[in-house]
Amino acid sequence: MTEEIERADNDSPWKEILEAYFPQAMHFFFPETAKLINWERPHEFLDKEFQQISRDAEQGRRYADKLVKVWLFQGQEIWLLIHVEIQAKSEDNFAQRMFSYNLRIFDKFGKPAISLAILCDADLNWRPNQYNYNYPNTRLNFEFGTVKLLDYQNRWQELEKSDNPFATVVMAHLKTQQTNKKPGERKSWKFSLIRRLYEQGLQEKDIRNLYRFIDWVMILPKALEAEFWQEFKQFEQERTMSYVTTGERIGYERGEQEGRQKQAQELVQRLLKKRVGELSPEVQERIKSLSLEQLEALGEALLDFTGLEDLRSWLSANPAE
């Protein structure tokens, strides 16, 4: 898998940014629910609990889901299921899946959950918000909260004036969609959005977090990426701020991660060749599409492989994240 395709898997930056600024995300996207929550009490991400009720990894779709425990002002605990739909196309059974998750949470843990969805797709008309059926003696109407990022296209000035970090997240997402196949225009917007972080006077930690999100979603061809880095380095030097190497540090972190991933790919492929024989180009591409965590898991699993069929079965059960 190429660097561009790999970095286009945008579930990871969404997960990171939701964890870093969860209260701000709730206030930005779902203010009515946010008002119910006592933010002075710590919230808790329930990753293990979510894994127990989620089966969608088998489908290979792109999701960024978070199950979060919060406390209401009345004192009771409640869980929030935040779903970010990364795919750029609508899904017919989306509302049913939202209902299924909500039901599984209640069935397995006995906890009511507020279900909320952030829709990142490009279809203005796709707006799922309920799942229902109606029979003579049984009726169900399950409604859930949704936010459509496309709707913010008409609220650009509002986004520019906002100091909520998710205003930047939405701006980066929209400009990524709008500059598809327009790399020069995307480069300009990427620089503009990052410059805005400095102009807002954000702390270094916030600039780093938001820069990482922008950098991962606003992918540029290698030549333009190199130009961008030179211009950004000069920009930071001109700011003469105490963290003038922010961009370079983030770039080093990204390069270090990509280096580890490449090393893991090469090691796993060598071990597989010894274990099961020559790998077809198709299988090699499948392996290149795996995340670092999946490559490490495959490195352990292959010790028990006896042939290519074991490898194919493992890849089928572990689609690229």
Identify the overall geometry: globular
Order of helix and strand elements from N to C terminus: HHHHEHEEHEEEEHHHHHHHHH
Number of helices: 15
Q: How many angstroms separate the termini?
A: 12 Å
The percentage of residues in β strands lies in: 5-15%
Tell me the total number of β-strands. Answer: 7
Mean pLDDT: 86
Helix content: 55-70%
Class from helix and strand fractions: alpha/beta
How many domains would you count in the coordinates? 3
The Rg value, from CA coordinates, equals: 22 Å
Unreliable sequence segments: 1-8
Q: Order the strands across the largest sheet as they lie in space.
A: 1-2-3-4-7
Largest sheet: 5 strands, mixed
Would you mind describing this structure in some detail?
The chain has 15 helices and seven strands. A hairpin with a 5-residue loop joins strand 2 (63-71) and strand 3. The chain is 55% helix and 13% strand. The protein has a five-stranded mixed beta sheet with strand order 1-2-3-4-7. The chain has a two-stranded antiparallel sheet with strand order 5-6. The model is unreliable at 1-8 (pLDDT under 50). It has helices at 3-7, 11-20, 22-29, 31-34, 47-53, 94-109, 156-161, 165-178, 183-199, 204-217, 222-239, 246-276, 281-288, 292-301, 308-317, and strands at 44-45, 63-71, 77-85, 113-119, 130-134, 139-143, 145-148. The chain has 321 residues and is an alpha/beta fold. It folds into three domains: 3-152, no CATH class; 153-253, no CATH class; 259-317.
